[in-house]
Structures are given as structure tokens and as C-alpha cells.
Amino acid sequence: MRWNQGRATIDKLIADGELQRVPPSREHADQLLVQARKDLASAELLRGSNPKRAYESPTMLHEWL
Length: 65
Known about the structure:
Radius of gyration: 16 Å
Shape: elongated
Helix content: 55-70%
Number of helices: 3
Strand content: under 5%
Distance between the termini: 29 Å
Largest sheet: none
Number of strands: 0
């Protein structure tokens, strides 16, 4: 499957060494989905009492990784 929107940007990032091609991994993709679901559940708990932190927590976590 190929796409066109943004393709030139991605190709340039790969050529410049900013991104690299990696083999697809269903196992890794599933791990990322599990973590994303946990992040969303945590944000949902904070949404009513602290909406700013609910938004920031998953974002900050991914920046630290």
C-alpha cells in the first residue's frame, strides 16, 4: 500500500537520516496500542478534576520516552 499525502516530506526525512525504515512488527504495534489505551484511561480519570493534566500526562510521557 502506498500513499501520496506527505510522502515527499517522509522521503526527505529518510534521505536526511532523520527517520529510518524499520521492518513492520505486529507485536510492537500491539504493545503501542495497549500503552495508548492505558494512557487514554488515565486521562479519562483526570478529565473531570484536572483537564489540563489529563491532556498533558500522555503527551509528557511520550516526550520522556
